[in-house]
Amino acid sequence: MTGYSGADHTAETFTLLERNLSPHRAAAYRAMGGVPAQAGGAGAEIHTYDGRVLLDCRSAGGVFDFGHRPPSITAALRDALESRDIGDWMLPSLPRGRAAAALACLLPETLPYSFFTASGSEAIEFAGKLARLATGRRGVVCAERAYHGQVGLALAMSEGPGPSAREQDVVRVPFGDIDALRAAVGEDTALVCLETIPASAGVVLPPDGYLAEVRRRCDESGALLLLDEVQSGLGRTGRIWAAEHWDVRPDLLVTGKGLSGGVYPVAACSFTEEIQRSLADDPFFHPSSFGGGELAAAVVCAVVEQVSRPGLLDQVRATAAVLRTGLAEVVGRHPSVLAEVRGLGLMLALETRDEHGGLALMRAAIDHGVLATVAHNAPSTLLVMPPLIITPAQAGAVIERLDSAARTVATGSTGPALRLPI
Ligand SMILES: Cc1ncc(COP(=O)(O)O)c(C=O)c1O
């Protein structure tokens, strides 16, 4: 029982979707066999208007790291609303300062400064501007099949402050190929930007030694290293930052998604003392109406408290071990559908044998009560990223339900093959 009364709200959701949001998206949901409309959620559960309870193995990429409506984070936001509003980005702010200090406690001591933004994309944009300002160079090297967000044109069209996006050259190299990266990084490279574990590319682990070599190449050439931990950070892999697994320290680190506690949008770019010195002549160089908002600041402090909770990382590692072992058995039972399970901590992926098989498995998983999503730059892959607070019993249920989903795909009962561009 979810407490939501269903048919009317479901119908209204889809009517409004067709009429005022996106008829094409409505058609896409229909093609996927009818994706239920979300009504709310609690912990690792998503509740739908038609009375279903899905186990969330998507977490919106980490937005719901601490589950849906986590009580202490929701309470921090409610308390903040009693006495503050978003605040003016241009004025000094005590809550913003406290949020930055809290975040610094989670970061290596080499990254004491943070700039808050309203989205991960904007934090990446800020990092790119900062790197170009700090180095006086324009080149950016990133990975093929990377995903860092959706902004860029606004910056390209805006006249200052800070270096213009029109001055950047982006080169892509295959993730994990150190020779390609070494060749691409040169004396005009301002920034090397990598997801520590690329999620949209299907949860690709960096080969051992790769990130250390990337760090070395940046040091040799004077380029700055940005690690995007928007999906992999805040405990997802069993360490606070995925980069800790390979003992690599970036010059800039971007976090987002889970930093919102699932209740208020916020992301951050954290950076070194040396980089912040380059802002001496242009301290206001990145205006952002909602960046560093005072409501967001309260949420950041509450999230940092959750990430620092004794036992959280042990809990993530223990649940991850259960889930991974169970999913490996599922792979073994359905070899015609599944090739492998891979990943680190609760950042897992099931590789299917069909180059577009992630979508069929996603559809079957929803039918069996699990929301998991296809990796949009690797359509053969289903991402399995539950909230960090998923219970062992729920992890067991996820294994059983994904087993049923794989069986459904194996018997061909998911209907025609799907090729949706999502
Ligand atoms: C690795 C990574 N970086 C950056 C972003 C952009 O974040 P946002 O959607 O908050 O702009 C995303 C979003 O999915 C992401 O997965």
From TrEMBL:
Give the highest taxon in the source lineage.
Answer: Bacteria
Q: Show the SUPFAM superfamilies listed in the entry.
A: PLP-dependent transferases (SSF53383)
User: Which UniProt key words apply to this protein?
Assistant: Aminotransferase, Antibiotic biosynthesis, Pyridoxal phosphate, Transferase
InterPro entries the UniProt entry points to: Aminotrans_3, Aminotrans_3_PPA_site, Class-III_PLP-dep_AT, PyrdxlP-dep_Trfase, PyrdxlP-dep_Trfase_major, PyrdxlP-dep_Trfase_small
In its UniProt record, a GO molecular function of this protein is: identical protein binding
What biological processes does GO assign it? Answer: antibiotic biosynthetic process
Keyword Membrane, does the record have it?
Answer: no
List, alphabetically, the PANTHER family matched.
ACETYLORNITHINE AMINOTRANSFERASE, MITOCHONDRIAL (PTHR11986:SF79), AMINOTRANSFERASE CLASS III (PTHR11986)
The entry sums up its family as follows: Belongs to the class-III pyridoxal-phosphate-dependent aminotransferase family.
Name of protein: Aspartate aminotransferase family protein
The organism's lineage?
A: Bacteria, Bacillati, Actinomycetota, Actinomycetes, Pseudonocardiales
